[in-house]
Amino acid sequence: MDKGVFFANQTIQNACATQAVLNSLLNKRDEIEIGDELENLRSFVAGFDSEMAGETLLNSDMIRSVHNSFSAPKFIDSDQLPPPDLDDKDDGLFHFITYLNINNTVYELDGLKQYPIKHEKLNGPEEFYEVLPQVLQRRIDKYHGEIRFSLMAITNNKLEQYKQMGDEISAQQEVAKRETWKQENIFRRHDFPKLTVALLKNILKSMSDEEWEELLNLARQKSLARQAQLYKN
């Protein structure tokens, strides 16, 4: 592995986003204050290979707790799911990976690969923002006709920025946005599909087929009416 590059494999299913964030943070300690616990974890796994480092990180009680606080009911649990394959084959859709500028080189850190992937060499930090779109486009081109991609970035704390600028309106909007995120995350941790199925089963017990069909038609009409209202607005 290249000197100065921290890389840990994803060794537990359904944890690729957490692994991508960890690979980002633990490579940017000079730019981001990551806190004592992550600093201690990084120091502890410094001599480990990438698979052992990933196993250690994702078995940390602190990381498990944070991951599970943002996840649906499928929690990190190495006893319930087999480990993901670590190889160079296509890892499919809906998988999180990290792109970073490390030592003026664009690196791709994919927890399901054996090693970091080195892309273009940069002449300086600012060139990263010019070169990265080309690297991403090559990645997208691998999936012919697929358009379901998302791009996220680790940025400065906007709330702190607005406070320093004295922009009270933007700061209040940011606080309100975070309250919305908090509520959304609370809902995300509940298994609403199972609740919905249980409710439907309970309703069906006391209804005939004709009554059920009538209820479905009523629901369809209400749904179409809501859609029409949305388009009208």
Automatic annotation (TrEMBL):
Q: Where is this site: Transition state stabilizer?
A: 10
The question of whether Hydrolase is a record keyword is answered with yes
Q: Which GO terms describe its biological process?
A: protein deubiquitination; ubiquitin-dependent protein catabolic process
Q: Which GO terms describe its molecular function?
A: cysteine-type deubiquitinase activity
Key words, A-Z = Hydrolase, Protease, Thiol protease, Ubl conjugation pathway
Sites marked Important for enzyme activity: 110
* Catalytic site: 16 (nucleophile), 95 (proton donor)
Which Pfam families does the annotation name?
A: Peptidase_C12 (PF01088), UCH_C (PF18031)
- Reaction(s) catalyzed by this protein? Thiol-dependent hydrolysis of ester, thioester, amide, peptide and isopeptide bonds formed by the C-terminal Gly of ubiquitin (a 76-residue protein attached to proteins as an intracellular targeting signal)
Q: Which PROSITE patterns match?
A: UCH_DOMAIN (PS52048)
Q: What EC number is given for this enzyme?
A: 3.4.19.12
InterPro entries annotated for this entry? Papain-like_cys_pep_sf, Peptidase_C12_UCH, Peptidase_C12_UCH_sf, UCH_C
**Stored Gene3D superfamilies:** Peptidase C12, ubiquitin carboxyl-terminal hydrolase (3.40.532.10)
Any one Gene Ontology cellular component term annotated for this protein:
cytoplasm
N-terminal signal peptide: none
Residue ranges of domain UCH catalytic in the record: 1-156
UniProt similarity note? Belongs to the peptidase C12 family.
Stated name of the protein: Ubiquitin carboxyl-terminal hydrolase
Protein species of origin: Candidozyma auris
